[in-house]
Amino acid sequence: MMATRRIITLPPTLTGADAIAFARDGLKRGADVIEVRTDLHAPGDVDPDALARVMPLLVSERGKPLPAPWVQAAWRVDRDVERAQDMDAPPGKLLASHHAEGPLTTAEALRRWSRPIPPDALVKHVEPMDGPAHLDVLLQTQAALSQRFGAERVTVLGMGPVAIPARAVLSRRNGLEYVAMGGPWTAAPGQRLLDDVVREHRKAKDPHALRLGILGTAIPHSRSPRIHRQPFDRIDLAEDAPVEAVVDALLPHYAGFAVTSPFKMRLAKHTGSQLDAINTLVRRGSRWESFNTDTEGARAVLERLGSKDVAVLGDGGSTQALRLVAAEQRFALRVVKRAEIHAPLSGDWVWTWPDRVAPPENLRFQGARVAVIAYGAPGRRVAAEIFRRGGTPLLLGAAWFVAQARRQRQLWETAT
């Protein structure tokens, strides 16, 4: 695995002392370079010398010209090979880049790089992805550019709503990785989280191992990347993303996936599972085999509740696991849908709605215990909502997660 520099981009809302604080936080968390772009900041917004004293400074020309003090303080100067009149930069500082407006074939990409490039320049090629399968093209482009310029100089990046796993795969042979610090702002669609990239760098034992990952929507809270072996990628996709095409395109590169809301039922159908919902994919040569280790989590939660009279709010993938375990233990599990809620609820319940889904306005509890199977910040938000509506929340998400994750780990060890 190449030694890749991790680059964070200064958000447009941060200037002056706040910009310095951002750079220091990034350095503490494992970033190697701070980027400042002319489309995000005016010349007087930042002190380039002060930023460069925190960590190496990358200055990028985007539309507006680069101020001379920025160039003087910079470790590297990013100029576009097509839009710039020349690629002027002090010796040893040029980062020659090309940002394509649309997906390219490898032959088209190489034609964009026909211009002579100084031998001490770094090379960065970026293009939007028209779908998950475009990863194969980007890998070919990366190999061709590396052959032309030298592998240690080249970075190839995909952009778009399905670019996160592509960037993870490409990163093994990239010299630079542009990462997000977390929160609502990101410098480009498809960036991985800094914490995930640092964790992989520190803990991955085999540089050639097939990757693992978690597929879901709104999953920055997921603990899976922290407990499973590396490399483990957080693949956050929109609810309407083509997740079926994503897993098919990633089959050559991944040993398995954890699957969470809202893709458990879609991927069960896609993989031909006999189950209604799955939460685990394991590579078997040229196909995916699917499993539902949520049954282990469901068993742990129902044991903690200690009741044979349990009802469930919501009817998604987690509810399917609860049904299976209830059938094993020979008791009927009542599933109550939103439209069926009319009076205050009592007894023992399991709340399966994700915290991003608003509960019905008329939902109320009366003397009810309600198991929360989300964990972390989402679990705490759900618990607060239950308490506000008169229920007693039981935070059992960690018990569910640990039980099912233990079984996932065993299954991924059998991947072929």
From TrEMBL:
InterPro entries: Aminoacid_DH-like_N_sf (IPR046346), Shikimate_DH_fam (IPR022893)
Tree of life domain: Bacteria
UniProt record, GO biological process: chorismate biosynthetic process; shikimate metabolic process
Species, as recorded: Corallococcus interemptor
An example Gene Ontology molecular-function term: shikimate 3-dehydrogenase (NADP+) activity
Listed PANTHER family: BIFUNCTIONAL 3-DEHYDROQUINATE DEHYDRATASE_SHIKIMATE DEHYDROGENASE, CHLOROPLASTIC, SHIKIMATE DEHYDROGENASE
Name of the protein this chain belongs to: Shikimate dehydrogenase
